[in-house]
Amino acid sequence: MARYVGPDCRLCRREGMQLYLKGDRCYTDKCAIERRHYPPGQHGQRRSKLSDYGAQLAAYFGLPYAFAYFFSEGFGVEQALELYRKNYRPSEQNPQPICTICVWALAADSEEEALFQFKSRERAMIDRKLGIRQPLLPPAEAARAYSSAELAMAEKLHRKAIVGSKEQVAERLKQLAQSLELDELVIVTWTYDAAPRHRSYELLAQAFGMEKDRDPST
Description:
Blueprint lengths: L7 H8 L16 H4 L14 H12 L3 E3 L1 H4 L4 H10 L12 E10 L2 H19 L9 H4 L5 H13 L1 E4 H15 L3 E5 L5 H14 L11
Parallel strand pairs: 1-2, 2-3, 2-4
Helix pairs in contact: 3-5, 6-8, 9-10
């Protein structure tokens, strides 16, 4: 049987998935499948995503469009929104395109508390990259010793994460909405315990002036 002696990265591209054959490189932006997600020998292609199809479908029927930013950590959002706006066909109910993204964000009473609660998501995202699927862990149990490659992944997650005090998170969300020229912004948050999630929504409602008067007894 012949033995393959070509570049390892070509094997990943041929299989359409990460095989983790290049060590630390596989966990960085230099990973070939992240940069060229198509088989060897097929040039000039761009990553095909269901979000692109959804953008085209919404544009064709003149419907509002929502991009799951939290699912891809924002990858492909500019392409999808551009595709939607460029091909939008006005409808009776929606004469203009309506762009929305759904983003993961977490606010707490302090930046330190927010970063602590973020440990659950950080661990889940890193484990997922390694092919590990398990229930969300409590933040106190989520921390573990990372390899150098995993540390690089964690740092990348922290740079992209919208986490902090309500002022910090609100400012990041406003900047994101402005840069993408959004009409709506949907926030989704999951934490191990429900209380930090509820508190995050409450703080962001305050930051955006959306908090309603409530009966303190309820």
